[in-house]
Amino acid sequence: MKDAIGNVQRVFLLGGTSDIALATVVKLIGERHGVQVILAARPGERRVAATASLEAFGMQVTEVDFDATDRTSYEHAVASAFEAGGDIDVVMVAFGLLGDQQRAWQDLDAALELVQVNYTAPVACGVLVAKRMRAQGHGAIIAMSSVAGERPRKSNFVYGSNKAGVDAFYSGLGDAIAADGVQVLVVRPGFVRSKMTAGLGAAPLSQTPEQVADVIVAGLAAGRHTVWAPPAMRWVMSGLRHLPHSVFKRLPV
Amino acid sequence: MDNRRQLAGWGRTNPSVATVHPAGDDAHLVRLVTEAGQRGVLARGLGRSYGDAAQNGGGVVVDMTSRNRVLAVDIGTALVSVEAGASLDQLMRLLLPLGLFVPVSPGTRQVTVGGAIAADIHGKNHHVDGSFGSHVVAMDLLCADGTIRELTPESELFWATVGGMGLTGLVLRATLRMKKVESAYCLVDTERCVDLDELLRRMAEGDHRYTYSVAWIDCLATGPSLGRSVLTRGWPATHDQLPAKLRDHALDFRPKQLAVAPAVFPSGLLNRASVAAFNEAWYRKAPLERRGEVQSIAAFFHPLDGVGQWNRIYGPKGFLQYQFVVPFGAEDTLRRCIQMLSDTGQASFLAVLKRFGEPSGGHLSFPAPGWTLALDIPIGAGALGGLLDRLDEEVIAAGGREYLAKDSRLPASAIPRMYPRLDEWRDVRAAADPDRVFTSDLARRLGL
Fold this sequence. Notes:
Chain A is about 45% helix and about 15% strand. Chain A contains nine helices and seven strands, in the order E-H-E-H-E-H-E-H-H-E-H-E-H-E-H-H. In chain B, the strands form five sheets. An eight-stranded antiparallel beta sheet of chain B has the order 16-12-14-13-19-20-18-21. Chain B has a five-stranded antiparallel beta sheet with strand order 5-6-10-8-9. Chain B has a four-stranded mixed beta sheet with strand order 1-2-4-3, covered by helices on one side.
């Protein structure tokens, strides 16, 4: 149970090796010892490193196997997280795959893999987690959307279409379960320098995972349903969204 | 009908959603308890606990306030039997005209008898009369197995229930020993103290001569004025001590609510400047010394009850109350805590200091011999968590504890360090309610 000043007791990360997820947990918990973190991710070196980085802050980390392409895996991950101990205060749905955008709209397997990881699995996790959180009568779900979902660009529209779907699902979910005491926070970051974008040239207004984490934690505390990272991205995207199509398609974005 | 509702404590900080049922009769309550689901059941009274003590997210919360009858009154023995949902306000309005006053009155009349037992509440007379549980002669407790047990102070379950935060069962009825009084007034002595040393000395030397004693400290005063305060102490006024014009209606008790705080109050209205100005005015307004002033019970005990929903003035983010007790002899700790609060300038209107006497016997009862300090703090200051964590460590190191009815932020690890009889309580509770049918957000947060 979260306390009066926002301290959490148990956090569940789906996609627990994501740079933004790890930065968010560190920002949220700080060095307050004994907070439990359930870290769901594929087994391997990255998960080992993620666990070690959180344990260094004094958190109690439990690892759970999670594969976004396998339905039984996320059913099991959610069930084990909620049945293993006390109430969960925050669930973060942070897994995702950028993929090869040129292949993604020309190769069927590549397209379907992105849809599975970036849309189908997040929706499934949302359904499973929402049911558990309604039953406990409190909690918050953080869902990673992206500005890429705001207006599809030819360089990135398969990923963008997935994120548009995730954004719509979690926005609606938040309204559907608000009366059950559960907050849903949809996060729309711009370009973030992280493992996911390693090797890509940085875009304007690019930021670090820590900067995104600051925005997320502030949004959680304020009870927001959507946050943009950086906050100015909201106005940039509002401008882009209203550009005439004839202009937009010529932009080098 | 959908009866899921969001419930919060008086501090309006961390709400949760529960299924709320009006109490109904005994048979209905037995059904609610025996058919409670996985998330359990909890009684709720008037919601004056500051944190999450009267919340049960995802579970059942029983609103006990509809069960508020006075069942029997014996003026000769001062014994009254009441339903647990009866409020102290109601008892004062009904029984003061008969010359009976509640044995213990906290800073508000808006608490139920059931809540008063669950938190083992205290008042300005703790140093001589002890806490509420010491004046309970018997109670009916609805237990997890659906049986109703009549408990007296001879039973362990009685003392697990006094101060047990509602986690042993539903208190249905209680018999209380009231205090006989000749009037609804007090004789009050007021003294202004320039610093903490003077205050502690006056309280230690003089409290035993008074039935009621409390000091209000200006927590924003620093340097040599650290701990400047106003000490008010008094006795119940006898009929003869009243001025002639009050004698004909000595037992009249009809307090009025003067105002209600508006539903929307901006955050941050209580800031360092506004609170400092208030504290200065309040300190200057108090007389240097005044003896034998006649004050009504409402004015002396419950000044804040004059403003309905006053918790709204802290704005939508809410506030918390921090209350601890440290043993006599730990005056240095007390001073350090006040110094830390004063240094960080966490805006609190006023802190309340009082001396506790003997404990009641409740395993988790808060009062223990020593100094207790309570103050309200608005949520929002960034460094608040760290400051309170450091205060916790001071309190624990001195052998003190914090009040669960006020708490909204302690870590679970602090509880065994503050409550040495926790394991004893857990044993009694495990025997009475092995499946933890009775639970709350506070119980989950603190691992009770």
